[in-house]
Amino acid sequence: MIKILFVCHGNICRSPMAQFIMQDMVDKKGLSDKFFIASAATSTEEIGNGVYHSAKRKLNENGISCEGKRAVQLKAQDYEYYDYIIAMDSLNMRNIKKIIKTDEDGKIHKLLDFTETGGDIADPWYSGDFDTAYNDILRGCRALLERLSAR
């Protein structure tokens, strides 16, 4: 089983969107038994809160539910459990490394680094642009799933 943890600042917008987009893709391909997918925050600001209403609405528009998801914080021991720890942007990468301290196994990546263009997924909490965030996350998840399926 491949274990993936998506990470953003608060775990209420981008990382839960990635978690549920990826889970939807895996489910539709009949690969649910081969993946465990979760998400977490680098900060403590939103711990226990549900997915932000605009992120939830965008997922629902695309037939994806995120019911029951509550923000949790990344822990150093997550490094041992997960095969991939996927950040949404460069700041998340830096904060993940502060929490985890090491990446000796090369598990930490930015989601868009699996695409041809690379880059950061802008935080829609600040921009209000959940359409672009959704599309970037979808593109990144497709590329990640392609990479993992080719293994």
What do you see in this structure?
This protein is α/β, with parallel strands linked by helices. The chain has helices spanning 14-28, 53-61, 78-81, 90-100, 124-127, 130-149; strands at residues 2-8, 35-41, 84-87, 108-110. It has a single domain (2-149), classed as Rossmann fold (3-Layer(aba) Sandwich). Helices cover 42% and strands 14% of the residues. The two termini are 13 Å apart.
Topology:
Elements: E1 2-8, H1 14-28, E2 35-41, H2 53-61, H3 78-81, E3 84-87, H4 90-100, E4 108-110, H5 124-127, H6 130-149
Parallel strand pairs: 1-2, 1-3, 3-4
Helix pairs in contact: 1-6
Nearest-angstrom radius of gyration? 14 Å
Q: What are the low-pLDDT stretches, counting only 5+ consecutive residues below 50?
A: none
Number of domains: 1
Task: Sketch the major β-sheet.
Answer: 4 strands, parallel
Give the helix/strand class: alpha/beta
Order of helices and strands: EHEHHEHEHH
Q: Count the DSSP helices.
A: 6
Integer average pLDDT: 96
Number of strands: 4
Task: Output the CATH class name.
Answer: Alpha Beta
The best one-word shape is globular
What is the distance, rounded to the nearest whole angstrom, between the alpha carbons of the first and last residues? 13 Å
TL;DR?
The chain is built from six helices and four strands. The protein is α/β, with parallel strands linked by helices and about 150 residues long.
Summarize this structure as a short list of keywords or feature phrases.
single chain; 151 residues; alpha/beta; Rossmann fold; four-stranded parallel beta sheet; 14% strand; globular
